[in-house]
Structures are given as structure tokens and as C-alpha cells.
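REVIEWER CHECKLIST
Item 1: Sequence provided? yes
Item 2: Single chain? yes
Item 3: Sequence as submitted:
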Amino acid sequence: MAEVKEAFPEIGPIRYEGPSSKNMLAFHHYNADALVEGVTMRDHLRFAVAYWHTFRGTGSDPFGSPTMIRPWETAGDPLTVALNRTHVAFEFMEKLGVGFYCFHDRDVAPEGRTLAESNSNLDAVADLLESHQKRSGIRLLWGTANLFSHPRYVHGAATSPNVESFAYAAAQTSTLLPTFSSRIKNVLVFVCSGGLPISLVILVTFMVPPPVQTWNLLLMQQLKCEKQLKSRTDSTVPATRFGVAEKGINASGTPT
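Item 4: Structure as written out by the authors:
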């Protein structure tokens, strides 16, 4: 990999300096090497940089235009910009000292005019991600397919009544999984975004060759666990939604 000009040359690695430090670009309480109950803070707190918020968000809202200025995104075709962004992302993560990152496929590689072009874009970026991961030791905490941003998914992906949208989502997902297993290795989690319906149906319907079938086994185990949870009748344990107990509903989902 050719040497790339730094995006943040004036900023060095962020270090722990303690609570009394006045340095705004230093950790005041997080000491990665400090032991807590025999385990380092680095291992207790597995911080990850979310690619879409950190490098794809524009700073816009319903009342204003984008406010984030990123010099590395001002020139070149979408794929060139995506590759430049990858260099910047790893510089940022290395200087911050995080060990993980996460993304949707369309966060790192642009949507093409066709599925083949989109897959080609993903292949090009995956090569660079793999190279940076090997060099830096940073790993992908989780990855997933973006099956919601494009207008084709207006009615969902696996839940879409449009067979072309469903088929496209299946092709997009079945392309991403082998990329994780053979290229961007050591990914810890594949996320079924939107809960389970969007990606799970695709994964268990379109079986792919090993080692990707491992993903299906893990997802089926998740289904089994959820089924067991729903079958519980212990009314002393409140049902929850987004981690908040709902008054008047017991663990089996029956109104009380």
C-alpha cells in the first residue's frame, strides 16, 4: 500500500493524561492499560468507531444544510472518494486508539449504477480495508448490509412485496457475507438490521457455501433463544421494548 498523506498531521495519538490534565485532546479517565478486576480497560470497554456517523454524516438536519467539511471528499469519482475516506478513517481510529470499527456495506463503498458495479466497488474497498486491518490490528466489530437507504427498499427488503426488491436484497447480502468471511476477516458480528426480518429471511433462504453457513447457524440459534424467551410465563419478569419495561404486560406478552 502506497504512503498516503495524513489528513490530521497536526494531531498525534490521543494519550491518557489523567483527571487533572487540561489537554482537550487527551483521555482524562480512560486508561486503556489500567487493570480493573484483573482485566484492562481496553478489554472491558471495546470502543468502536461507527463509520456512518463519523465519516458519512453531513451535519445536516431538517432545518439546515450540511455543515461538515471534509477535504478528502471534494474531488474524484465516488469510488476514489471512498478509498480516500478509508485511509482517513484508519488514521483517525489509530490516533484515537480504538480497536474496532463497524459499518454498513454502503457506508464504505458507493452504490453503483448496477448490482455488478456496486459489488465491484465493494471489492475494491474491501481490499483496502483488509490491508489496513492487517497493518493496524484494528478489527471489524460488526458489519451489515444497508437494506433501507435506497428507494428500492421503501417497503422493506425481505419483507418487500416486490420480488425484484427482495431478490436485490438477497444478492446484496449474499455478496457481503463471503466478503466478511474471506476478505475482511475476524468480523465478530453480522447484524440483522431492523430487528430480524430484513436480513434473516434472506440468510436462511439463500444458503451459501461454507464457511458462510456458520453465520446461518448463529442466526438460527438467535431465533431459538428468542422463541424460548417468548414462551416464558414468569409474570414477575416484565416484557421490555428497547430495554424499557412496559407497564401492564407480562413476560409472555399477555396484558395483565
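Item 5: Key structural point noted by reviewer: The chain has a mean pLDDT of 78.
Item 6: Recommendation: ____
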